[in-house]
């Protein structure tokens, strides 16, 4: 028997909440998962994958010569698109399908019973990491959450290859059974950064990344005057704050992470916001906060849909402008929910082919109070 270890990119896919489904539903979902995975591999130009059934998931070992850029870019994008297409028909219920995934690479051997190797064990530990489970729970509209090993991050992700954006990844501690003191990287397609994770450690940008400064995890927080900047984000430049979200005459702190979205009511990029005590410092209503968060989520999902070409360039640009209008009209100097409602309805007309965007816009519309349009 040849137990010579050989290098393979390793993919572990695990269905979220599989144990709560009936046996017929689990079988139905497994068939769909295999079909989606095979199509995503073909779309990415990956051939020769060897798969092994894991009951509620799949182990796939790719040939050693497969470019890891194809795995981290086109394959992930294609799999996410497959899952989103499925979600348009089965968003909730026993046939809904969301995945946690682990992507790793290492030495694997084969005996008469299957694949074996320490690197394979590591991949299975990754997909069960509590931080990944927590992120999947927090990212309510996501259909896929990835745990990427530090090996792949250092070799591929941090180099900013086309179609692979290192700023969308967050590093977390990785300890499980025989593994201790290591780190891995979490990404949720469609989100600027994975939700539900603790604030980055001051030194987390030191894990060998080339983008530590851009992610803002290696530098100190900075302060800026809140006067005249009420509701302005540091990353995207869009105004999301309503009257009194920050207050005037006070200060706010933010990390240097790009593309961040202000979470009304006290945080920016997971950092605390210090509000002033002058006019306008009263907290925004809970309904207003929820609406602004929904619009911020729509902006992230729209950006992801445009990258996947689910929304054409012209419609995507127009839809982005309507989100700008909705945020502006709900801001301190806006004309109120009536105008924001019109903007969101125009947004709906531009993204009718992307069901997850339609659902998000309808939720935002439902949160707006009634009023004269």
UniProtKB/TrEMBL annotation:
The record ties this protein, via InterPro entries, to: Nucleotide_cyclase
Which segments show compositional bias classed as Acidic residues? 313-324
Bias (Polar residues) ranges: 267-276
Where does this protein have compositionally biased stretches of type Low complexity? 197-210
Q: Which domain of life is it from?
A: Bacteria
- What residue spans carry the Basic and acidic residues bias annotation? 325-335
Question: Which intervals of the chain are annotated as region Disordered?
Answer: 197-290, 309-338
Which regions are flagged for Gly residues bias? 231-250
What's the name of the protein? Guanylate cyclase domain-containing protein
Origin organism is Streptomyces alkaliphilus
Its taxonomic path starts at: Bacteria, Bacillati, Actinomycetota, Actinomycetes, Kitasatosporales
